[in-house]
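Morning F.,

Quick status update on the modeling queue. The single chain you submitted on Monday has been processed. Sequence for confirmation:
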Amino acid sequence: MNIKYSIIALLCMTALWGCSKETITPETFGNINGQVLNSETEEGVGGVNITTSPATNSIITNQDGSFTLNEVTTGNYNITASKSDFESATVSVKVREGKTATAQIYLDPEDGNGEKSLTAQVTAWNERRVNVDSTGSDSTFADVEYEVTNSSDDTDIDEYEVYFKIYTTGETFSREEADTALAAGERNIAEFSKYVHQTTIDSVVVSGTYVE
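Structure tokens below.
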């Protein structure tokens, strides 16, 4: 019996020792500042519903289209802007501890000019750092995946362009991607890489589209 109790006591002490070794990582927080713009006029759009995934607060943009989310847990977020008479749009941002990420969202009017059949969105992006010289400095690349859809039921697109903005802690970079032959109802997924110097990326967004 003494041996049995000794084994049980040893197991309990081992379990308690293991628990004492566990460390709890404290939560860290940052902020998101953003603005919603009309893709055709580039004017701010007020009264837009802003939601995030993972969920934070649901808020409405100010008259100039601006919005702020304070003290959100660090990590990656998808931010969706929705308002009647506009197509909803989503951008992805990365929130870092003690920093403010920038989110700029362009909404396409539903009525538009009667020819708006191309929609595009960033589906994923990654910040890639590469050491390219002997100084020890890392160069940053934005690896971006995006989706383009011809929402028309009966009109093929012969040629199109998609325009991107890459927001970083240093400056804003632009990128243009072009392709051809998108049939009615067809969806295409593509990707690109963009060198953004030695900066840290906040967000990557579609800033506009053009159909030939």
